[in-house]
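Open question from group meeting: does this chain pack into something compact, or does most of it stay loose? Before anyone orders reagents, we agreed to write out a predicted structure and look at it together. Recording both the input and the output here so the notebook holds the full record.
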Amino acid sequence: MTVDALTDVAGLRVGHATRSGDGRLTGTTVVLAPEGGAVAAVDVRGGGPGTKETDALDPRNVVQKVDAVVLTGGSAYGLDAASGVMAWLEEQGRGVRVGPDPRHVVPVVPAACVFDLGRGGDFRARPDAATGRAAVEAAAASAQGAAVHEGCVGAGTGAVAGQLKGGVGTASAVLDSGITVAALVVVNAAGSVLDPETGVLYGELFQGRVQYPEERVHEAARRRLTEVASKNAPPPLNTTLAVVATDADLTKAQAQKMAGTAHDGIARAVRPVHLLHDGDTVFALATGTRTLDSAGPLALNDVLAAAADVVTRAIVRAVRAAGPVDGPGGVWPSYRELYGER
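Structure tokens returned:
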């Protein structure tokens, strides 16, 4: 049974730590790999990324597997959340073995952040090591294959998508080969997810399952967006983050190719993307429990195509799941508030 989420890749777990109220509107999301880790890679295409340990994921470098990936709010300050995840992993004896004692490990925890500073009203309210620890503990406590909470949770708590409220979304697909490909995204885009002429999400236009809103609904939504735009400071730095994963047995180089192709899924659903003030980053994980068809050298193509597709669907789900925010840090309507469920 699948739940249309990143956790459909067996062994992966997702945990959120959400911080809201009292000037806070931020949080951290952790993707926890199975025991023994997962092959990992990354592709960074935004011009203003905030990341940690991404160089370790280069196929030319020594680290082959990681035990967790951290997505966090708080801009570069929020990368402190990875320290809490590292501490928890060390306690479990998980990480790169660096000494004769099994406890002598160094967990490699790649991380990336989104800009949400001040969106709850307090610029200094941001995730820290305790937030990261809470998120990884939530992941570890979750059941195998559990559904993943979407919308304004974890790293998506303070996320904004253009003029709309952003958030966390996830999706998965099972290929004819039986291989699973899935994605989890944090949509905090400087670009828009919404076609201004029709009121349809760009990602839904790509999917070809479009239900256009009534003209009166669309006009009311446009008036509302114009009204609230004057209440918000222009977003100086924004980012869409993703973790795309598969149970296929990929090398680091193949995983890096999957991360790169997954960026196409962002480009279908957010316009424009990969600007100088974006930090768009995609991590790739491969758990290796299913073998690619060795007789077909192009067997990876199906995985690559699916990676882009699930990222697009995850972005749509993030925006549809998000709720509105009206607080001291700004006003961001949700897509559902403006256009209904449709």
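Observations to bring back to the group:
The CA atoms of residues 84 and 130 lie 6 Å apart.
Residues 300-321 form the longest helix (22 residues).
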